[in-house]
Design brief:
Aminoglycoside 3'-phosphotransferase, Chain: A, domain 2; Phosphorylase Kinase, domain 1; binds magnesium ion; binds 2-acetamido-2-deoxy-1-O-phosphono-alpha-D-glucopyranose; alpha+beta; about 375 residues; five-stranded antiparallel beta sheet; 12 strands
């Protein structure tokens, strides 16, 4: 039985949750860069396994709001699925486990926040997708957004200004000015590219201020590995990692998915020759997304889809650079220039995507826009 890992005393945390069954093992799970995630396996075949997560409260500073949002979203989706007569509800929406005192997270003596959910059996995630899964992901994220269009209350901002490009530039400029770890001199070439394109990349916020672009409830972390598919026949099951579900400009989900899925390599590959834009993945995802989200997107939002594909690698490059210049406090790094490599990689992807702007526009123009 494993009851300690690094400095974590699992035997003090696990009994705080209303778990069924006898715990057999606890082991690390997944590739999240923000929270620490563990799988909790029970002995009995007829009892569920669980996912235990330590919430990174340096990033999600209001854990109460975070968990409130997630409960709001999962309860809403569950109700919808039940109403639609869905038979596999437990594998189509996350279910959180209450603590002994009826809360949806536990604060331990060392001031660490924990939450627990039921492990979804017979399901899998992918780090890369082919065109078939890309299409399914497009439909799925559009449907996910659609389900959230009538939430009974608006979720709060778990990370204010999360996908706000103006804010990300401001953050970057502040750290460039302060240069706390003396890294600015070495990245002047990249900073010049950011400044060259900043205004164009900030157009979404301007359009929002002018009342032309609405804020919608988005997932805001639509990386490929945040979706689960059935392990047997591959059908789509659910969207996971709901920490950043909040009001945002719609680009968030569309653009961020392609940022990870349509990169021909991993976001931290240090060899820039490997970074290209996968046009087939773009087409498949866009087709699926427009088929589902096209029901509620405005003509301007559809017109701006190619901009969204450019925006997300650009924004991610700025964010990785900000963390590199700050001294690497935000993302887990495996070596000293890890964030710098990530930033360069995302900038290369941005430049590759920009070369395909006309192709993206032409392709989107061929897609039928569904009516509600
Ligand atoms: C973080 O939690 P994770 O690893 O799915 C980040 C995303 C970035 C991503 C880059 C809350 O996502 O915004 O796109 O890393 N999440 C947060 O890999 O900052
Ligand atoms: Mg994640």
């Amino acid at each position: 039985m494993i009851h300690t890992m690094q400095d974590v005393q699992f035997n003090q945390i696990l009994p705080q949750f209303k778990i069924e069954g006898t715990i057999e093992t606890v082991k690390p799970l997944g590739n999240g860069l923000i929270n620490d995630t563990y799988q909790v396996i029970t002995q009995e075949k007829d009892k569920p396994n669980y996912v235990l997560q330590r919430i990174n409260d340096a990033i999600f500073t209001n854990v109460d709001l975070l968990q409130h949002n997630i409960a709001l979203v999962t309860n809403h989706i569950r109700k919808k699925l039940e109403k639609q007569g869905e038979t596999d509800v437990d594998r189509k929406v996350l279910q959180f486990v209450e603590t002994m005192d009826g809360k949806n997270y536990f604060l331990d003596a060392e001031h660490r926040y924990w939450r627990m959910m039921i492990f979804i059996p017979n399901a899998q995630t992918f780090e890369t997708v082919d065109t078939k899964y890309s299409y399914l992901a497009g439909v799925a994220f559009g449907d996910f957004e659609q389900m959230l269009t009538d939430l009974p209350e608006e979720p709060g901002d778990t990370i204010p200004d999360f996908h706000n490009m103006e804010f990300r530039m401001k953050q970057l400029r502040e750290v460039v000015k302060a240069d706390p770890v003396g890294r600015v001199e070495g990245v002047k070439d990249i900073l010049a590219i950011f400044e060259r394109d900043a205004e164009r990349m900030c157009q979404a916020e301007r359009l929002h201020r002018e009342g032309k672009l609405p804020r919608r409830i988005c997932h805001c972390d639509t990386k490929v590995n945040n979706m689960m598919f059935d392990a047997n026949d591959g059908h789509f099951l659910l969207v996971i990692d709901l920490d950043t579900v909040m009001p945002s400009l719609f680009f968030s989900d569309y653009g961020d998915f392609l940022r990870s899925a349509a990169n021909t390599t991993a976001e931290d590959d240090p060899n820039m020759d490997n970074v290209h834009f996968n046009v087939e993945i773009f087409k498949a995802f866009t087709k699926g997304y427009v088929e589902s989200a096209g029901k509620f997107l405005t003509p301007l939002e559809i017109e701006l889809l190619p901009y969204a594909v450019e925006l997300f690698p650009f924004m991610q490059s700025v964010r990785f650079m900000w963390d590199y210049l700050s001294g690497d406090h935000y993302w887990k790094c495996k070596y000293p220039t890890h964030n710098l490599d990530r930033s360069r990689n995302q900038l290369k992807l941005y430049e590759e995507v920009c070369k395909h702007e006309q192709m993206m526009k032409d392709y989107i123009a061929t897609l039928p826009i569904p009516t509600n």
